[in-house]
Design brief:
Layout lengths: L10 H12 L2 H8 L16 H7 L3 H9 L15 H8 L2 H9 L14 H7 L3 H8 L4 H5 L15 H11 L6 H10 L6 H20 L5 H23 L3 H10 L9 H12 L7 H10 L10 H10 L20 E2 L7 E2 L2 H54 L11 E5 L6 E5 L23 H6 L1
Antiparallel strand pairs: 1-2, 3-4
Helix pairs in contact: 1-2, 2-4, 3-4, 3-5, 4-6, 5-6, 5-7, 6-8, 7-8, 11-13, 11-14, 12-13, 13-14, 16-17
GO molecular function, one term: zinc ion binding
Protein name: Ankyrin repeat and MYND domain-containing protein 2
Function: May be involved in the trafficking of signaling proteins to the cilia.
């Protein structure tokens, strides 16, 4: 059935849009089975059912609509918005990832020239920005699973494509997390497999730098992953403790404060080895990291992550001390200064944290004592100010009412010669609130309209 013009909807299609708002998947499935319902129908603003579901954060309905053939790249919206843009505006990472996997164009722009990632960043949805910036289509990796040119064998065995793609698209670039992902997959945790993966990552890096639309961010990420894979391969060949030894090396901290010196030096080395010295991103990273002394803020990992995934530095969130996973909420019960995402990460880090735990505990206790002193002084000053204000008020006397107040004066009655109180005309004093009457409301604007401005 041909797609109608904007706003030309059947009754069942109007009903489908209403059902999407309520989130009723079962009823939506029944409506999509009707011959009168077009999955890519357009409302009066040019929004498809998928756009509505994405903007309202209905992941199950988005999945259902995609199964029925919803077009992720429809650009009939009055302001040029796509389903991916609406997903980014909603802040739903699952929907954003789902639409990306369905083939959404990340470079599409709206009527004011903004991409989906820029739209999400504009409204502060940095998680969605990270997902979009780290997305890598599986088809681009599958290219290397087939023999090319005169090659008899593919550069990447098909069995490694899935595990490698998972690591390429991860939004957590912490070296410990990457090593754990390698360790958890027996197909990757072999010297020969890692060597082939390194080769493919280097080829993708080279292609990103030499293509017409150069992508320095993706090239740097591929190079960084290749360096980690190479380090994993070295430990598998040379160390008896294999990848466990690499994890301990990355997590081991200084006795004084627990700072992971080996990890910091390794990340700096990865950046330094980037083969394209003229890259603007490399020069920015070097300028940001080189003046910083090892152990001081910002760390090489925080600078690198912000450059690759987006402006996560402005996000108010906690990250796991062990693996860097966002949203960690479990603190060490003793020092309460380090945070973990789960008990597994806490156990993995304890071998090194126990050396600095007591020192960090002392630091925290001193900070709490100082904070208590400051709070006590503030309370004293506030109480003193209240007493002084009360004394001033008692000397001046009770204040006149703000409205309807009268002032009594003594006058002499000429007829009797007696002194009698005299009343003057009432004096009205406007309250502070009345000065703003008629100007206290704030006119709300439509979110999408505001984005356009």
């Amino acid at each position: 059935m041909a797609r109608a013009s904007k706003g030309e909807l059947h009754n069942e299609e109007y009903e489908l849009l209403e059902v999407i708002g309520t989130g009723n998947v079962q009823k939506a499935g029944l409506l999509l089975g009707s011959k009168n319902v077009r999955v890519n129908c357009l409302d009066e603003h040019g929004m498809t059912p998928l756009m509505h579901a994405a903007y309202k954060g209905k992941a199950s309905l988005c999945r259902l609509l995609l199964q029925h053939g919803a077009d992720v790249n429809c650009n009939e919206h009055e302001h040029g918005y796509t389903a991916l843009m609406f997903a980014g505006l909603s802040g739903n990472k699952e929907i954003t990832w789902m639409i990306l996997e369905a083939g959404a164009d990340t470079d599409a722009i709206n009527s004011v020239g903004r991409t989906a990632a820029q739209m999400a960043a504009f409204v502060g949805q940095h998680d969605c920005v990270t997902v979009i910036n780290n997305f890598f289509p599986r088809e681009r990796l599958d290219y290397y699973t087939k023999p090319q040119g005169l090659d008899k064998d593919p550069k990447l065995p098909i069995k490694l494509a899935g595990p490698l793609h998972k690591i390429i698209t991860t939004t957590n670039l912490h070296p410990v997390k990457i090593v754990v992902l390698v360790q958890e997959n027996p197909l990757l945790a072999e010297v020969e497999s890692l060597r082939k993966c390194c080769r493919v990552l280097d080829l993708i890096c080279e292609k990103c730098m030499k293509q017409r639309d150069m992508n320095e961010v993706l090239a740097m990420k591929m190079h960084y992953l290749s360096c980690i894979f190479q380090k994993c391969s070295n430990f598998l060949k040379e160390r008896e403790d294999k990848l466990d030894g690499l994890l301990k090396s990355l997590l081991k901290g200084r006795d004084t404060d627990g700072f992971p010196v080996y990890q910091e030096k390794f990340i700096r080395e990865c950046i330094r080895k980037f083969p394209y010295c003229e890259a603007t991103l490399l020069q920015q990273l070097v300028r940001s990291i080189s003046p910083v002394e090892i152990g001081s803020d910002p760390s090489a990992f925080s600078v690198f992550t912000q450059a690759i995934t987006g402006q996560v530095g402005f996000v108010d969130a906690e990250f796991c001390t062990t693996c860097g996973e966002k949203g960690a909420d479990k603190r060490c019960s003793l020092c309460k200064m380090v945070i973990y995402c789960d008990q597994k990460c806490q156990k993995a880090h304890w071998f090194t944290h126990k050396k600095a735990c007591k020192t960090l505990q002392d630091v925290r206790e001193k900070q709490e004592i100082e904070a208590a002193k400051v709070k006590k002084n503030q309370e004293k000053q506030q109480k003193k100010a209240e007493i002084e204000a009360a004394e001033v008020n008692s000397e001046v006397g009770p204040s006149s009412p703000q409205t309807g107040c009268t002032e009594e004066l003594v006058s002499i009655d000429p007829s009797t010669g007696r002194a009698e109180p005299k009343k003057t005309a009432e004096v009205s004093v406007p309250s502070p609130e009345s000065a703003y009457e008629g100007d206290s409301s704030i006119t709300s604007t439509n979110t999408l309209k505001e984005l356009e401005e």
